[in-house]
Amino acid sequence: MLTRLFGHRGEDRKRLNQASRALYETIVAQARQPRLYSAFGVPDTVAGRFEMVVLHLVLLFRRLGGAGDEAQAMAQAVFDTFATDMDRSMREMGIGDLGVPKRMKAVGKSFYGRLNVYGAALANGDRASFAAALQRNLFPEDSAPPAMDGLADYAFGEAAFLGEQELPPVLDGRVVFAPANAAVAS
């Protein structure tokens, strides 16, 4: 049974990789929704798009959290897919072999920091802290960043929407986000 859960057999590893790739592709598609940028003030930049991918990863990981070994293995596989994509993207942007590991370390640190901060705000129902964290991450050098209350409301709505989804389809690579255009900016 543990072999099936952790995907050590070739067939199970292939299933896990396919499902994690499908989940990651869904996250990226959701993170590219134009409404996130036009209605919620997310900068349409490489950094802004990175933040939206990370936000949706955090939301998925919240859904998978505490759901057992198979869900934990899936979360790790999705993270690995994300890391591979970030590595590839950096190389496509011209970052050399010596610079990629340093930047990947920063990506990992950024991801886990956001996972902790966003996760705590979601767990505590603290939209104000969530919005403040979004401001810091999306506008790190802006002394007067725009309000992120609408994006925080969107994230809380997505977390609830994901929480209602049955786990087996998610573990098979099928997750659904609410359309970003259904959300209303505050």
In short:
This protein is mostly helical. It contains 9 helices and no strands.
- What can be said about the biggest beta sheet? none
Distance between the termini: 48 Å
What is the ordering of alpha helices and beta strands? HHHHHHHHH
Secondary structure category:
mainly alpha
Which term fits the overall shape? globular
Q: Helical region count? A: 9
Explain what you see.
- The protein is mainly alpha-helical.
- The chain has one domain (9-178).
- 71% of the residues lie in helices and 0% in strands.
- It is built from 9 helices and no strands.
- Helix 4 packs parallel to helix 8 and helix 6 packs antiparallel against helix 7 (127-138).
- It is globular, with a radius of gyration of 17 Å.
- The N and C termini lie far apart (48 Å).
- The model has no long low-confidence stretch (mean pLDDT 81).
List the helices and strands and how they pair.
Blueprint: H1 2-6, H2 10-31, H3 34-38, H4 46-64, H5 69-92, H6 100-124, H7 127-138, H8 149-163, H9 167-171
Supply the key terms:
186 residues; mainly alpha; 9 helices; globular
